[in-house]
């Protein structure tokens, strides 16, 4: 359903290639996606392509408005009213995110993000993410996930494998949103995360003698030998690792797990061919109203995402906006099988936290239950 309360202005001038008089195809596809979630105005200049382009766009979407103008900076953008939740202006002329009068301006520089980070480890990008650092105290609220349901699912898997107590390692634990419930179920938890801010928030919320945290890098943190009855790595966290780092991570966890222990690896299931995805999230609590515009591109076995947050503080009546870029590696089941070979076998696979069966062509998630090989 289209949410008329969101307005998006998309500048095509900034992606027009004068030399061959064309617009970037990927970007054009993206325009149509925005029309699913918002009132979309497409801004473009008088070019030779104009008629063809207009026809192409109106054939596919009836709810698109056009604005012909040399520069997006020259048009009068509607300022958000209490009725309109957010206004986004997207143009590749912006080098940083800009916010004035609660109008958020940013670019979709997917290629430059991919080029900047594809040769390096993506953990460095994770370390810079604002949601993990600046907003760690609001993390659980901002991500708006059904943590209780995820914990029930984890308990179900552990019990199915006769693990009713003992120590569980929460790899890349973030603010430890699963740990309070897991400890209520009778497990002792050790959470490890590379972000000091996330661990500080975890320690603040989960004060419990059965839960401990350390700031550490799961790719090489020296774990005590055969101490843990189980391990989890929730919510697409290992996707920051390249294949070599993933191997070190797996070897490391293997060392720390008892014989017969299980390791639950949870990642998004990326269904091909996916090029672009856009969606909006709106939610609120007693103090804040949040609107998040998410734009994702899947390409070259990587997913590049932009999260544009608009957070309205009910007491100060001010809106704070920020943007987080993210790049992650896509792992298929075959990739995981190849990496864990000789250390773990896959004993179960699920397509979501409701314990539904995994189907590569349609599941939302890929949750693999690995069992340690014993020698
Ligand atoms: C998507 S969040 C998931 C957090 C948590 N598992 C959850 O479900 O809420 C990914 C987390 O991985 C952490 N992380 C990334 N690379 C890491 C590494 N090499 N070692 C430990 N933590 C890492 C980040 O700091 C971040 O907290």
Task: Based on the model shown, name its key terms.
375 residues, alpha/beta, Rossmann fold, seven-stranded mixed β-sheet, 34% strand, globular
Report on the architecture of this protein.
- The chain has 375 residues and is of the alpha/beta class.
- The chain has 2 domains: 6-109, no CATH class; 145-270 and 331-372, Rossmann fold, CATH 3.40.50.150.
- The protein contains 11 helices and 19 strands.
- The chain has a 7-stranded mixed sheet with strand order 11-10-9-12-13-19-18, with helices on both faces.
- Bound molecules: S-adenosylmethionine (SAM).
- S-adenosylmethionine binds next to helix 4 and strand 10.
Overall residue-averaged pLDDT value: 90
How many domains is the backbone divided into? 2
What is the overall silhouette?
globular
Main sheet record: 7 strands, mixed
Fill in the CATH topology of the largest domain: Rossmann fold
